[in-house]
Design goal:
This protein is α+β, with helices and mostly antiparallel strands. The protein contains nine helices and 27 strands. The relative contact order is 0.12.
């Protein structure tokens, strides 16, 4: 089952404040009269409201009175010039930028969020915007959409700067009915600056199939959409190095809707160890890692830390042939869905790549990995401390506890990533050995992304990380409560010599 990913950190649903008629005081550095601000009158004129309402209910597009209403790939509306008072906007922006921001950074997103929920901020212009959204605009939404909204509204401020992004998700969380974004970007913002709201279509399994519409941020535009099982979207990476994508966003809450059961995708095919000629195996593996004393030293370190990185793992001649073949290969298939991953898999592998995979899946490799880790991956390996009964380790591949593995040859470039999800370990197996062989990543730097990060289930704090390193083999032993993801490769990764690199990702089971 997919691990539900939503943007919820530090933004909790709150009851909208009751607004009394007449003047009232707001708390700020100096006590002052409260401000008020109105929705652009073109959206509140009776005839326009009726047109918006009828179009919304009929599922028809509308582009009248300034409002842009569209129902593909899911229902969303854009209100340009949401507030007519430009002086108010300038002061509102100053107040927002004066807030304290915290960096939010995990598998799904990287941006800066206001530390305080905007419901408790008492500066005059933020208070006025909050009153407008919580009361007048909420009433307008209920009229147009016929969705009964309650008094729970979430609202926070976000800053997206160079390389910041929010990857594909659907906003689905109990009670959320309408999401909104109010843009306060510079007037000069363009599509070259990135930061667009990308909207995804879905496939027959209800999973995101690809971006079909991108909405470029425009200053003083207000965008809203219904939160449904179809509302997959993302904030594209900000590409501008000197502009800030400033916005106020959140959700209106209402009665929950019926949702289909989560889609469960099949696991990769597992294979048992294959036979390989001894001389072929020795042609590939650095002799250092075949030496018994070296293996014993590596095993001791691995058993202490459950992870290790082995540099120059392949013989140099074979490694160069493998790298050259991958760099010349043009047979790659994008791998999704985008709410779980985005990279490319190799099709029609060249012979040298086929041979490398056979080495990694070979009986000899299972034995070497057993010697390097202390795991029971081969009949000749000693019993490991983690061995359990056949009943406890029975897998779903037709064999009870038989050592097996799966392998993928992956290409990574700008825009690639993986997200955390629950079904990362096969069937009933409790533990797995991740093995990553990196190829062609010379010139890689940490600020480019691409780090494989391991976290505990339900937590964002990193337990350990694996960085791409030329001709290195990374080994990580993990249980079902340890999840992992590959951090989004940002625009800086275009500086790589080939603008891409590769890995052969293997998972072994005892």
């Amino acid at each position: 089952m997919e691990r539900k990913r939503t943007v919820t950190d530090d933004v909790n649903g709150e009851t909208a404040p009751k607004v009394k008629k007449g003047k009232h005081k707001t708390k700020s550095a100096n006590t002052q009269k409260s401000l008020s601000v109105s929705l652009n009158k073109c959206y509140t004129e009776d005839e326009n409201v009726k047109n918006f309402e009828s179009s919304y209910q009929a599922g028809k597009a509308c582009d009248a009175g300034g409002l842009q209403l569209c129902h593909e790939p899911f229902t969303h509306g854009i209100l340009p010039t949401f507030i007519e008072d430009e002086e108010f906007l300038e002061s509102l922006q100053e107040e927002l930028l004066d807030l304290t921001f915290t960096e939010k950074n995990n598998d799904l997103y990287k941006f800066y969020q206001s530390r305080e929920d905007l419901k408790v901020v008492q500066t005059p212009h933020i208070s006025a915007l909050r009153d407008l959204i919580y009361v007048k605009f909420k009433e307008w939404l209920e009229t147009v959409t016929h969705i009964p909204l309650n008094n729970t509204v979430d609202m926070s401020c976000a800053k997206y700067e160079f390389t910041d992004t929010l990857l594909c998700h659907d906003d689905e969380l109990e009670g959320r009915r309408i999401a909104f974004i109010y843009y306060l970007v510079p007037p000069s913002w363009s599509d070259e600056d990135g930061g667009a709201l990308d909207l995804f279509a879905v496939n027959e399994n209800g999973q995101p199939a690809g971006v079909v519409k991108s909405v470029v941020p425009v200053r003083n535009n207000f965008l809203f959409f219904e939160v449904t099982p179809l509302s997959f979207h993302q904030v594209a990476e900000v590409l501008s190095e000197d502009k800030t994508r400033l916005s106020v966003s959140g959700w209106f809450h209402g009665p929950s809707i019926i949702r289909p059961a989560p889609f469960e995708e099949p696991h990769p095919q597992l294979v048992q160890a294959v036979s390989i000629e001894e001389d072929v195996f020795f042609d590939w593996i650095n002799p250092t890692y075949l030496d018994m004393l070296s293996q014993a030293d590596i095993r001791e370190r691995f058993e202490e830390e459950s992870q290790i990185e082995l540099q120059n793992f392949l013989q140099n001649s074979k490694y160069e042939q493998l790298k050259d073949a991958l760099q010349k290969c043009d047979s790659w298939t994008p791998k999704g869905p985008a709410n779980k991953r985005c990279y490319s898999l190799l099709d029609n592998s060249p012979e040298i790549v086929v041979e490398c995979r056979r080495v990694l899946q070979s009986d000899a490799m299972f034995l070497v990995l057993s010697n390097l880790t202390g795991l029971k991956l081969h009949d000749l390996a000693p019993e490991s401390d983690t061995d359990e009964s056949d009943e406890d380790t029975a897998g779903t591949n037709g064999t009870k506890g038989e050592p097996c593995c799966c392998t993928q040859v992956r290409r990574w470039k700008h825009g690639s990533y993986t997200l955390v999800h629950d079904n990362e370990i096969e069937g009933d197996r409790e533990f797995a050995l991740d093995v990553l062989l990196y190829i062609g990543c010379e010139g890689w730097e940490p600020d480019q992304g691409g780090i494989t990060s391991y976290i505990a289930r339900g937590e964002d704090e990193e337990l350990l990380s694996v960085s791409p390193s030329e001709n290195s083999l990374a080994l990580v032993y993990r249980g079902q409560d340890t999840l992992h993801f590959v951090k989004h490769l940002n625009v800086r990764s275009r500086k790589l010599p080939k603008r891409e690199y590769y890995d052969i990702c293997c998972t072994y089971y005892e």
